[in-house]
Write a structure and sequence with these properties.
The protein contains 13 helices and two strands, in the order ααααααααααααββα. The protein has helices at residues 13-17, 27-36, 41-67, 82-87, 94-97, 171-175, 186-201, 214-225, 237-259, 266-292, 305-320, 324-330, 346-376; strands at 332-334, 340-342. Strands 1-2 form a two-stranded antiparallel sheet. Keywords: Membrane, Transmembrane, Transmembrane helix. The chain crosses the membrane at residues 273-295, 302-322, 357-377. This is RGS domain-containing protein. Residues 91-131 are annotated as: Disordered.
Length: 382
């Protein structure tokens, strides 16, 4: 399945990464597939960390704008324009000059109750839980990355979940200038940029992105480890675009195939194969036993229909990755083994219902054909 084969009415990768979709085609499930099925979660982690760095940069620029160090003309070409970067090239001391923020120039000097939340590492999630951890060696970095929302929480598209009530800051609250969240300073930006470098770019990093072309990796290292290290998001712009294109080309079509045309996990499929083979074995054993025990045609031999159907149904689930009864009766999709979320994306729901009906009918028809064939065989008592 290629990118060109993706129907235009399905959500795009950009929609998923910006959390504008509903389960099962959501960022939570995309991460689960990237981690458990494709083993490419480091690409998604890197992309989200760079987006968080861009968010820190935007908050920093907004704080400078409120303080009068940056004007509307400086922002005319965007938050990452060359004009703005040139304007900030000699502003390392701005944090000390801003009124009321000089005592907060270093994260370690902030009062305990104003310390920013610790970093969220997507790679340390398991199931629906979210564990907060600090990056080794950079414990003072104020990282607040938008979490992957548990899809069991029903939300409507383009409406943020009330995460602040649970103590977690959303992208919207961080950008809007929540007064309870201190704006980052230049050292925060430098720490964030270095954190990404040490985690993904340098050789033997914790989640080294071996997929990145060597020129891009070297350019990032030169920019961050040179005599005048940079901290702006443009350092990672090419790498972020490369990661996006890699996910769109390799991972996203497979994700859609698993979640739009199916609703079970790999381990569930393997389990259904075992159940299906046992069901077929029971069906063939029952039919042959009735024939060789001299039971008459038809009538009592139709009892083999049940094990035949159980076997055929589960083999179809293995082959297609779709359990029709889960969709038609419970409207659920499996995230990890025996953990589910409701199917809420409208177009995906239509596709799964249509495929489920056809698959259920096909399993019944095949089972009846096999049962009729064995019922028509004349008895032969041994």
């Amino acid at each position: 399945m290629t990118t060109k084969a993706i129907p235009s009415d399905l959500p795009t990768l950009d929609d998923v990464l910006n959390r504008r979709t509903l389960p099962p085609v959501c960022l939570y499930n995309f991460y689960i597939v990237m981690r458990d099925r494709l083993h490419m979660e480091e690409i998604l982690d890197f992309y989200l960390d760079v987006k968080h760095h861009e968010l820190l940069w935007k908050r920093y620029i907004k704080s400078l704008q409120r303080s009068g160090f940056v004007t509307e003309e400086d922002l005319a070409e965007g938050y990452q324009s060359n004009r703005l970067l040139s304007r900030l090239s000699h502003t390392s001391s701005m944090d000390e000059k801003r009124p009321g923020l000089s005592h907060l120039s270093s994260p370690t000097t902030r009062p305990h109750h104003l310390q920013p939340p610790r970093s969220m590492d997507l790679g340390e999630r398991s199931g629906n839980s979210i564990r907060i951890s600090q990056s080794s060696g950079l414990s003072n970095i104020p990282v607040i990355r938008p979490p992957i929302i548990d899809p069991s929480i029903t939300v409507t598209p383009r409406q943020p979940v009330d995460e602040e009530a649970a103590g977690v800051l959303t992208t919207e609250s961080m950008v809007s200038g929540n007064p309870s969240v201190l704006p980052p300073n230049r050292q925060d930006l430098a720490n964030s940029a270095q954190r990404i470098l040490l985690k993904y770019i340098v050789p033997s990093a914790q989640k080294e992105l071996v997929q990145l072309p060597p020129p891009i990796r070297q350019a990032i290292r030169d920019a961050l480890q040179g005599p005048e290290p940079r901290d702006d998001p443009l350092v990672y712009a090419d790498a972020k675009q490369y990661a996006f294109e890699a996910m769109q080309r390799q991972a996203y079509p497979k994700f859609l195939r698993l979640k739009v045309w199916g609703n079970v996990t790999l381990w569930q499929q393997l389990g259904r194969l075992a159940i299906g083979l046992l069901g077929l074995l029971a069906g063939f054993a029952t039919s042959l036993s009735l024939i060789f025990l001299g039971y008459p045609q038809w009538h009592s031999r139709f009892g083999a229909l049940v094990p035949f159907w159980v076997g055929i149904y589960n083999v179809f689930v293995f082959l297609t990755g779709l359990d029709p009864l889960w969709v038609l009766l419970f409207n659920i999709s499996e995230t990890v083994t025996f953990r589910f979320n409701k199917i809420a994306q409208p177009r995906v729901k239509e596709i799964l219902w249509s495929r489920s009906i056809w698959l259920l009918i096909a399993s019944i028809v095949v089972s009846m054909v096999i049962t009729i064939i064995f019922s028509a065989i004349p008895p032969r008592r041994l």
